[in-house]
Records
---
Amino acid sequence: MVETDILIIGAGPVGLFTVFEAGLLKLRCHLIDALPQPGGQLSEIYPKKPIYDIPGYPSVLAGELVDNLMEQIKPFHPGFTLGDRAETIEKQADGRFKVTSSRGVVHLAPVVAIAGGLGSFEPRKPPIHNLADFEDNGVEYIIRDPELYRNKRVVIAGGGDSALDWTIYLADLASEISLVHRRTEFRGALDSVEKVENLAAANKIKLIREAQIVGLEGNGKLESVTIEQADGEIKIPTDHYIPLFGLSPKLGPIGEWGLEIDKNAIVVNTLDYSTNIPGIYAIGDVNTYPGKLKLILCGFHEATLMCQSAYKFVYPEKKLSFKYTTVTGVSGFEG
Amino acid sequence: MEDGMIKVTVIDREGVRHELDAPTDMNFNMMEVCKSYELPVEGTCGGMALCASCHMYVHSDHALSDPSADEEDMLDQAFFVKENSRLGCQIHITEELDGLEVELAPVS
């Protein structure tokens, strides 16, 4: 069980900076993120892209900004629950919120700050009508344990690095492996593309190009997939189908927490970025208000004001006096 | 054609045609044009060819620049991709595109 002052949902730039502003007020933070690393979109989507509108930085790479934020919040020893999604929220008798993650980790905090960006990153699912029927019965979007595929027939779909890498990895393990791709060319590391081509030439894998999977068949368990090509459809028997089309953000369970939502964003009061539930705040890209701009720098501002307001939920009897870091410096927490 | 403004047609996911004015002097792309008219285009990544949420089909035969490697890579992760698939954010509004007609791809 994790206990903290402010539980931050989302470890993107705004969530990370919240740790700093909270730390200045002696509030401790813990972050939950569905991705296995901090940084949110900046790490997952565009780590090598330069950002030009962070005050004081004429240009900074997204990945660098994340590294700097991690450095900046280090003195405040934030906790992290990564690769796990905030699933449910319950108000406790003591006034605190209990947030449980999809892996069952329980977090308790008087304040919840949702800095969820566009939502949690989840695998893109191909539009096959009965896909859900076979989830975990032959269809997997993420490879958790490669041993599952030992001596099994596997069909992988996709043309990027993860599709290539897993095809190479499973070539030795699976009894039969087919890689299905929409185009003839593959993106992804040249070295991996070459390896896949060589495996295909040596008949270790089957490469099916300019094709896509349009149907799944089986009785409770996946038995075959239907592949559409220019000259018609073919059906190949398989035990597993692994579609690897990258990740896309979905608002997810937060949408069912009883918060006021407008067009996939959480409605907040710009006084302090509070939501309709006292003690729950929403900051950064996940919130909406008149004049909202989805900018990192605006999220930083929102995080700062939010912490001042959140203080009263942690220390209802204490008065908060505002101080400049130039006067007080930054004194972190021990251990 | 009005100076600095072209006409484009966007067919939405219900099949409704929208005739829109698109300015050529604001560094706009088709994703942004759709968003400015509140058509249901997400533009999640903000126009970096990194999310495919502005996937559209180009119906008219305007000469568009070839898709970049980034755009092709992203289309690999999209669904319902056809020969005339493009990412709206990579279609920059210029005078030559007057009369452009596109259709929004299904949401996936």
---
Amino acid sequence: MKFDIKKLDTYAENTWCPGCGNFGILTAAKQAIAELVEEGYPLNKFTLVSGIGCHAKIYDYLNINGFYSIHGRVLPTAIGIKLSNPELIVLGFGGDGDTYAEGTAHFIHAARYNADITMVVHNNQVFALTTGQATPTSEKGYKGKSTPEGKWDEPMNPVLLALTAGATFVARGYAYDVKYLTWLIKEGVKHKGFAFIDVIQPCVTFHNIAPYVRERMYKLEEADHDPTNYEEALKRAMEWNYNLDPDAKIPIGIFYRVEKETMEEGFGRKIPYYKVERKVKWEDVIAEKKIV
Amino acid sequence: MRRSILIGGQAGQGVAKAAEVLGKILVRLGYFVFNYRDYPSLIRGGHNFNVITFSDKRLFSHDERNYEIIVALDQRTVETHKKEESENTYYIAPNGVKIPRGENIDVSSALKEGVPPIATNVILLGALAKFLGIPKRVGKEVVATEMKGTFNEKAFEYGYEKGEKNGRIGKIPRKGVYFLTGNEAIGLGAIASGIDMYIAYPMTPATPVLHFLAARKDKYNFTVLQMENEIAVINAALGASYAGAMTMVGTSGGGFALMAEAMSLQGMSEVPLVVYLAQRTAPSTGVPTYTAQGDLLFAVHVGHGEFPRVVVAPGDPAEAFNRTIEAFYLAYRYRVLSIILGDKHLGESHYSMLENEFNPRVEPDRFLIFPKGDFKSYEITEDGVSPRSVPGAIEAPVRATSYEHDEYGITTEEPEKIVAMMEKRLRKAETIRKVVMELEPLSIYGDPEADRVIVSWGSTKGAILDAMKHLDGWKFVKINYIEPFPSSRFLHEVEDAKRVVIVENSSTGQIGRIIAENTGFITEDKILRYDARPFTPEFILRRLKK
């Protein structure tokens, strides 16, 4: 049955900059949800979690269940939701500052825990909402207000980090290739386990690397890449280190996909807790400490 | 009759277990017992000890000198506690440990009778039982149910045979006596409240709750989850609660500090949450396995911005059980942050409690609604409480947010909407205040007409109640709810008093500032203890007479 995608709109005023890569991610997310609903996924089970930053405004623009959490804490919040109610389809949206700076520990552990959630990182390689400071994924030499001489440290490679941390689905998308990103988000949702999608999201105001990316980008699906091969995935992940080297190649698509037991399976979670009726009497509970 | 026995030895020698078993034996025989546990932060070696104080009358505290008996598993116990002995203190120790008086038990030959050296604690427990005149059968029965390995029964019997008989402890007929720690009571209170998820990162002295609940999660069908740090813990807890689970987290001061940001998120998102803060000696790492009440102001003021919260401070395990149930009720009924403020002394000491002291006043529930059609996650209501639903249970979206928002939970920066939502939360605070005032926010002990008043809160209750047995013309005003504070009732209790003394396990007497902040009443008369040790009745009486 055709789903009216307009149902996903809200009355909130969109305040992203004109041309912002976030529009591409929002459109892809809506399209993915619409197509998944048409395939039978119940709309009211979709639950998003956002962090803080430009990306997080997506909470206001998507008419689904949502938790607008705090900076860096998307993943623990999402994991708590999933364990509480495994029927929910949990979509995390984070920024690169959010996920790779403030929330790095959560990112590494979420990859290990393998809860069945999908994490989309709006990676514009800059703190945009706070007006242009370097993040861990900014290229070496990035000049922002806090690094006027240029950022001196090497960028973090989140795709490589996710692979080594044990993520079971690792992908990279491009915010301006909406159709491909839609497909990636759908594959992420369908993946049983922790699905991580790093989305290159050029920031039109502070970090517009669209021309650089467009010239070097290629799709893994068109390059005979085997996403079940972990060593191949590592090699592909190392083709771009998030610096702006002229010789780099930038693969997008699914680097790696493997099925493992999920966190909620490991914890034996099936029934949403809100449906569990507890009829335990307090007198019976305290009785275990009765001596005479 | 108030009798105290110290059992000491190295960590790993089973001092705490022997003390707990002795406590249970004495409660079985109809005595009231308090079991204080003292241990440094290490795994093997060092010096641990317990003090078991018991009587045929109610008691809630231990002694810190003039022990009737010292059971010394090692020489260090004898040396460390020499300064606390009386001239009659009787020592029981294995052969090889030099003692000023008392008896040495030939532990080395126990091996021949199939008792391994690891059971030295139980051998000495047997000898102690003999000395006290505890019936062998009762002792053996409790050892058999409490300790794994049949060699323990043999060890008890061996010690009992070798030991010298002195007194006689007869059985006092009694019914309805419980023996438990504050941490166990909080765990059981959470289960009785219908907990779905307990999430924590290990931190003394809250860790026993994590272990206690993990051992019971299958029986009662709930989840116990340890995560990578306290920040993950509290944010996962808020996620879990938003999605419908009855959720609690537990930690001590350092972990509580890491959680502070998300407590403010609780205030804005109004996602229900129960937090157990087990205080220990601070600042910073402080004295990690010892007690203090120095986090009071921190707990009451935690989180940036203005938002309502509940801080409840139980004074013994029965209260801990009842108040944990109240904490859940208030959190879920009113979408508020409930903080249970305990400490190491309450958490890790065993108390004997009476059946009628377990009496929860409220029944926790998820308090959910499932409307068809439209749903406002932050509906503006007269009492400030927005009815709660959960995602996936209804067709409409259910929202939670850290950002200021309108009734649907959509972000707003409009001044009128900000004021409307802020005032909704203020009305909620007033609603909660009215409810808490019906939950015995303050208790009076002693002579209600007295004009000399002790004011305190939390785990000092036991030592104060036992000290009051030696005081005439005093009453004890115990504050149970620190927030919201029972201001008018408190003022009523102290306004005509000649003397108002604050008793607190801290160096500044923080409850004095809370009282002043809420009522304008100021007292500089304070009995404070900040050597990381809990109060004893004798300490309070000594300071009161100064």
